[in-house]
Write a structure and sequence with these properties.
alpha/beta, Rossmann fold, 2 domains, 7-stranded parallel β-sheet, 6-stranded parallel β-sheet, 15% strand
Length: 383
């Protein structure tokens, strides 16, 4: 069987699919990705084929080209830019139609936010599955509608219907208990849970030595950069009992940070899965991918949501007693210390984390997802 992945070219969207791809290939299946060059290596590493597409299909590249504000534009791009990107991506998708058709895939897997992938699949009529890297969206779900009303302008709401899609199979990479309004989603939705790789990554962090003192890992993700926030972290946790690993991302200049406390390890890139295995508390931007990884390893988290679905993820984290959240405009040194101390000392949080972690591991998400995709592909050959 042959599978084609058409995903948004962003780490939070690509990463959850990679482990499934690795499992499909282990089972003797053929997998092809259409993605930008910056993701080619991670796809090839697990044995899949790559068709490199124009960098402009990556919304970050498009926004940076059209708007000089750079990294902040992706977190909340103006509506006219978002609309322009979606229109141009859909038009440009037709340049790939013949190539995708020639793959003769049994199943195509696409990201509901990947407008160009959706355009290709609908044009060709390929049997398809959606792959949600965040909450599944249903137009009648009250909590998600509240989120839309709270965080989106009227003109932005007109765009959101494009992300409300349903195929015969819709894979959601979070557990059902984490999904808002789960009762609105029928049998076509598979809440498989986080798709975590067990492959080790080489790092210079000497992780085995970190167990000598409690580890606090801080990361705002791969897109954001916030020197003022990092300086607050220096003040809150510098020269304390914490060994702090701070992921500042590729866009932060070390010169911006000034004097760095001795108990801080700072890197532009951190192998997050490897670090989380040794982490006692995680301060995160609240991206779904990061939160799921923390839950998988049972790490209490303080979420500081920045944009998109992150406020909703952070809210769910606190509702389920799995961590704490701080609004970004309310971050202070005292708030950071208080939140970290609270989650690190809470027996309730520890118990809740243990319960959801056990449930997720028992579900065997990677195996389950590969089974579902193979079943869908086999149904197509019978028809």
């Amino acid at each position: 069987m042959k599978y084609v992945f058409l995903m948004m070219p962003a780490f939070g969207h690509m990463n959850p699919t990679i482990t499934v791809t690795e499992e499909l290939i282990r089972r003797g299946e053929e997998v092809v990705y259409y993605t930008t060059g910056d993701f080619a290596d991670i796809v090839k590493k697990v044995g899949a084929e790559v068709r490199v597409i124009d960098p402009i299909f990556n919304p970050i590249n498009f926004f940076e080209k059209m708007d000089p504000r750079g990294d902040q534009s992706f977190t909340k791009p103006p509506v006219h830019l978002l609309t322009q990107y979606m229109n141009e991506a859909r038009l440009k998708a037709h340049e790939l139609i013949d190539q995708v058709k020639s793959e003769k895939a049994d199943v195509a897997i696409y990201d509901p936010m990947c407008v160009w992938g959706k355009e290709i699949i609908q044009t060709l009529g390929i049997p398809a599955a959606t792959f949600y890297s965040s909450f599944a969206f249903h137009k009648e779900a009250p909590t998600l509608q509240r989120w839309v009303d709270q965080y989106f302008l009227p003109e932005e709401k007109q765009i959101l219907h494009l992300f409300t899609v349903a195929e015969k199979l819709n894979i959601v990479s979070n557990p059902k208990e984490f999904q808002y309004d789960a009762e609105f989603f029928d049998h076509r939705y598979a809440f498989v849970g986080p798709l975590i790789s067990d492959r080790q990554v080489t790092t210079d962090l000497l992780l085995d030595n970190l167990s000598k003192q409690p580890v606090l890992y801080i990361s705002l993700g791969t897109i954001l950069s916030n020197a003022d926030f990092y300086k607050n972290c220096f003040e809150a946790f510098g020269d304390t009992h914490w060994q702090v690993i701070l992921n500042v991302g590729p866009r932060t200049s070390m010169k911006e940070l000034g004097s760095i406390p001795e108990n801080f390890i700072i890197r532009p890139f951190v192998p997050q899965l490897e670090v989380l295995k040794h982490t006692d508390v995680f301060i995160s931007h609240g991206g779904m991918n990061s939160i799921m990884e923390a839950l998988w390893f049972g790490v209490p988290t303080v979420a500081i949501p920045q944009s998109t679905d992150q406020p909703l993820v952070a809210e769910r984290l606190t509702q389920l007693g799995l961590g704490e959240s701080i609004q970004p405009d309310q971050v202070t040194v005292e708030q950071l210390r208080e939140a970290v101390n609270k989650v690190s000392q809470s027996e309730v949080v520890r118990a809740n984390l243990q319960a959801i972690r056990q449930s997720m591991h028992e579900a065997n998400p990677v195996q389950q997802t590969a089974d579902l995709l193979q079943s869908l592909a086999q149904q197509q050959t019978v028809m």
